[in-house]
Amino acid sequence: MTSDVTIIGAGLGGLTLARVLHVHGIPATVYEAEPSPAARSQGGMLDIHDYNGQLALEAADLMKEFRGLVLEGRQAMRILDPDGTVLFEKTDDGTGGRPEVLRGELRQVLLDSLPAGTVRWGHKAGSTRTLGDGRHEVTFADGSTLVTGLLVGADGAWSRVRPLLSTATPEYIGKSVVETYLFEADTRHPAAAKAVGGGSMIAPTPGRELFAHRERDDTLHAYVGLSEPQDWFAAIDFTDAAVATARIAAEFDGWAPELTALITDGDIAPVLRPLYALPAGHRWDRVPGVTLLGDAAHLSAPNGEGANLAMLDGAELGKALAAHPGDIEAALTAYEQAMFSRSAEAATFAGAEAHGSDSDQITAQDLVTAFTRHEQSR
User: Fold this and answer.
1) Does 103 belong to an annotated binding site?
2) First-residue to last-residue Cα distance in the chain
3) Does 208 belong to an annotated binding site?
4) How far apart are CA 101 and CA 68, in angstroms?
5) Domains present along the chain, CATH in parentheses
6) pLDDT by residue (tens digit) across 309-318?
7) Is 295 one of the annotated binding-site residues?
8) pTM exceeding the 0.85 threshold for the entire prediction
């Protein structure tokens, strides 16, 4: 039985792997750079799909806990023109296969499901090297080291484990998003709250888009998408919230005020988030004793699948290791071949959930057509 599993990264994928291994009686240790579970915000809403993310939670025996996190009504969505006209609207009748939860709450469920001490906080991986015979050494930022017989990189876009397998590095996709929050929206920001509705809202034009969703406690979480090179954003002083807000808002001049309020009325300083992706179809030759999952393996432009795929990667890897006791290489080979195919398919997905994130030319009507086609095919 595998008894020497080291996971770098306590995101959803790494924790799902640790949990599925625990379900099968296989111990693992997770090393996480953050000093504690509450070190930073874990992001916003996630729609957990019945064809990947929920399958992972079933393998982790956490579906009951997951259902307790679901925010009712949040699968509702609408598409707006920049003038505020609602072009498409879908209500949440409770039958959709993509219920919404908060990422931080889902992560906490996974953490709570693991034995005490499974996650070692404050361990930032600095470098890794191969020792031979399927063993690898990890050196942490504090100078400490460990040697392991199975190393799993679940450490995201800038993985320290990936260089053991691949020379690929993420590249900027030509687009960034600026993140804002509006709190107590129904009372303090009623026009924006009405525009967003009960779930999510997107208003796209070529090179510019506004996407927002309603979270718990009457909070609106918005992402302002702009297709521009990185030096364009570098010219904006994001340390000055007022200056940055005004500069970003200027790009949406003429849009309906209830939409631009998602930029101008933010209750936090705007946060710039450049978007990166690994080369399409990224894969590697089998290297004994090491593998990757989630964004470390197949970072792509946002399309609604990233967290779901990371969790499914973790679950499938855990199941493969349980199915091949004493034969790590057979487990890793089976896992990687299925993962390569699964991630390549998701990376080229051009359906309704892409939200225009990988296109500079999408219009609101394009998105309406995509959603309508998607609904008709169900």
Assistant:
1) yes
2) 43
3) no
4) 9
5) 5-72+98-169+280-347 (3.50.50.60), 171-277+354-366 (3.30.9.30)
6) 999 999 999 9
7) yes
8) yes
